[in-house]
Amino acid sequence: MASKSMEFLKLSEEQIKVLEDSFKGCKYPDGTTLMLVAAECGLSEEDTLKWFKLRNAQWRQAEGLPAELGSVLD
């Protein structure tokens, strides 16, 4: 799921596959999981965290939820 907001990362198809597979398993990874995913992708933890934040916003929007984490009543 590549979008213009994620293009700054210039990810390979393999990196996207690893990130998407990780996202399917856990939308909000803890520090250890984030570190492992970043290492598997060859990305920094900061870039991996940015990807997860952007991907979560996309997922929430697709689900009709607010882009930011919060109550559905917001």
TrEMBL record:
Compartment annotation: Nucleus
Pfam families: Homeodomain (PF00046)
Domain (Homeobox) ranges: 2-62
GO CC terms in record: nucleus
Keywords: Developmental protein, DNA-binding, Homeobox, Nucleus, Repressor, Transcription, Transcription regulation
GO BP annotations, alphabetical order: cell differentiation; heart development; regulation of transcription by RNA polymerase II
Feature: DNA-binding region: 4-63
GO molecular function: DNA binding
InterPro entries: HD, Homeodomain-like_sf, HOPX
Domain of life according to the entry: Eukaryota
PROSITE patterns xrefs: HOMEOBOX_2
Protein name: Homeodomain-only protein
